């Protein structure tokens, strides 16, 4: 018998991948499946970015790079943050990693241990809770509520801080709800954190380029008073349709940069060099492809919300960001998991049960609108008879 470490029992997963596997299995049997389950843009990476990656390979960039990322890439990140959020960031505080996920894993490993408490959104990205449990820390859920537009409530966060709290994870725009936290709540949260100097904040801003209806992203970097204990996570996966390239970064506080760089050296040495050159082209090049993608996402967003609200027993609030709709399906009489399974098996539409994002996602279903408008509307039409 293999002597696996018991810590593995605490490691969770992302069930969107389980749904994807089943959807692919059904498709292989010849079923027509519309995938509204997966959280990645259905667009290709813009051509000039692909070309920059190919050129880097042809130019001989085949070796290790600095563990924290190529200097020109970290400078491009700082310039991008200045452009988008109006903030000054020292490129030395930027650490480039393979995607959005490594930052969250490293942050939780740095602040999580038995006896520590780490707060995370529920419903929220499932990897947060998984890695918190893996670290041995106690996960403390922050409830996100439909009636509050799935925004963070500063009070709900601050009320749960104890002497043991080491890290708080927030995410806006949010997966799976599309919720956007308004500036007033962030102002209140940052003001309240002044009373708790032992707490570090990780702000997952991977969807910071994806807001709708005139909403403007508020970055936690815009609050100088918490820079010395802020980890701001962002990356290329969603904005530039680069999920498979594996490229992300975070801005770390001075005190944490050496620690996270050592984690990078121990884990992956550096991100694939050609990918980093592609990342430079993404940030420094034209942004029209990003703008075009957002026009499509917004159009689909409005279409899916309207169509979902016409389904019996379903109501869907307006998602302000990301590319997810998170309707309340309690009126259908089904649990989230039942609805997910029936809709996949009987209507051939992949969605993800709200409970995949935490227990408080019960009664909700996540629809990703990273698919064509035509497919989205066909999918909802196919679901309708199941609910009538
Ligand atoms: N953070 C959130 C909130 C996400 O939804 C995702 C991906 O779905 C990530 C981070 C991870 O992105 P990546 O694929 O770059 O690791």
Automatic annotation (TrEMBL):
Residues 31-383 form the Aminotransferase class I/classII large domain. It catalyses: L-aspartate + 2-oxoglutarate = oxaloacetate + L-glutamate. One of its GO terms (molecular function) is pyridoxal phosphate binding. Its cofactor is pyridoxal 5'-phosphate. SUPFAM superfamilies: PLP-dependent transferases (SSF53383). Pfam families: Aminotran_1_2. Keywords: Aminotransferase, Pyridoxal phosphate, Transferase. GO terms for biological process: amino acid metabolic process. InterPro entries: Aminotransferase_I/II_large, AspAT/PAT-like, PyrdxlP-dep_Trfase, PyrdxlP-dep_Trfase_major, PyrdxlP-dep_Trfase_small. Its EC number is 2.6.1.1. PANTHER family: ASPARTATE AMINOTRANSFERASE. Belongs to the class-I pyridoxal-phosphate-dependent aminotransferase family. This is aspartate transaminase. It comes from Actibacterium pelagium.
